[in-house]
Write a structure and sequence with these properties.
Layout (H helix, E strand, L loop, with lengths): L8 H14 L6 H10 L5 H9 L3 H7 L1 H4 L6 H17 L19 H5 L4 H20 L3
Helix pairs in contact: 1-3
């Protein structure tokens, strides 16, 4: 990983990847296609996001409705913050990951049990993840 002190190593890495991919004298079409296939990335945007993560402010903005919902309990807010943390690190996340570690550590019954009686909240979290994912798919076209 590229690191300049402790400042923005992931962001610099992302810019390096983008710079290399866009360099006019490098023909990376064939290696890139293979790399995207191995990473199961449906698009270049998806691939780059999975490498550099999602900007924390963008993730917080996407989930602000839940962060500001005063009806949520502290463990529920912690769950939303964990989603943001995961997106910041990984950039992309499938909805099924919400039933795995570290999320299931908050409630053995998973998000459905943690948000019992608040179907609109858990549906909103899943919907937000889907929107973030579909935005990457749209950039593929």
């Amino acid at each position: 990983m590229i690191s300049v002190g402790n400042r923005y190593p992931r962001e610099l890495g992302g810019w390096l990847v983008i710079g290399l991919l866009c360099h006019p004298q490098l023909n990376l079409t064939i290696p890139l296609t293979g790399l995207l296939g191995r990473r199961e990335a449906p698009s270049l945007a998806h691939f780059v996001r999975s490498m550099v993560g999602l900007d924390r402010a963008a993730a917080q903005s996407a989930f602000s409705e839940f962060l500001n919902d005063r009806s949520l309990t502290p463990p529920q807010i912690r769950f939303v913050k964990m989603v943001i943390d995961q997106l910041t690190v990984r950039g992309v996340m499938k909805a099924g990951a919400l039933y795995e570690v570290p999320f299931k550590g908050l409630h053995a019954g998973g998000p459905d049990a943690l948000f019992a009686g608040q179907d609109n909240v858990i549906a909103g979290i899943f919907n937000t993840l889907e929107i973030l994912h579909s935005n990457l798919q749209a950039k593929a076209g």
